[in-house]
Amino acid sequence: MAKQHKDHPDDVATSGPFTAGMRDALTRTARELGEPLCAAEMMDLVHVECQREAAGRVLRLFIDKPGGVTLDDCSRISREMSDLLDVHVDFEGTYHLEVSSPGVDRPVSKPADFQRFSGQQIEIRVAPKIAGKKKVKGTLDGIRTADDVVTIVTEDGPIEIPRTRITRARLIIDGVA
To answer: Whole-prediction pTM value?
Structure first.
């Protein structure tokens, strides 16, 4: 469910600079507020991302629960998150708040998720490059929690990726990430 957040009439595409620091702070705060909110509703906050898109700035939360989430679940979390963000975030400008299910090509970001989806196909984007690549595709072989390193098996063999270098990870379903 999408919602224009903050009460500013200006166009989201022209409402000022949106730095990486602002994006990271908004993402971190949304995660800190969203995890206990979702837990109280017997849901899991799967992933939070904040980015600039054609429609403007988007703060996107992916939620899940056993049996899947409903539109009502997304609407309820969206309303409650909106209220929490209004109180806890001092952010100039506007952004759209979206809350949805993770879908079949779900994002993978938590250590438990890298373990849970071991054996499945995954596409991981990294920064800086690893083995000369920004994107690595293969079979997820889990995570070594002691040093927070994800292993995937590619056509060229296993690759170990420190989780701190992962900018995005998504499951690949039917060859599509």
So the answer is: 0.75
Query: Domain 111-171 has what CATH class?
Result: mainly beta
* Percent of the chain whose pLDDT exceeds 70: 86
For residue 40, the tally of other CB atoms under 10 A from its CB is 9
Half-sphere exposure of 23 (CA within 13 A, CB side): 15
Q: Which CATH superfamily is domain 2-100 in?
A: RimP-like superfamily, N-terminal (3.30.300.70)
Cα(158)–Cα(133) distance, rounded to whole angstroms? 14
CB-based contacts of 162, cutoff 8 Å, min separation 6? 147, 148, 149, 150
The answer to whether 134 and 125 have CB atoms below 8 angstroms apart is yes
Let me know if 149 is exposed, middle or buried by CB neighbors in 10 A (0-12, 13-18, 19+). middle
pLDDT of residue 70: 95
Grouping H, G, I as helix, E, B as strand and the rest as coil, residue 71 is helix
Geometric angle at alpha carbon 101, from 99 and 103, rounded to 5°: 135
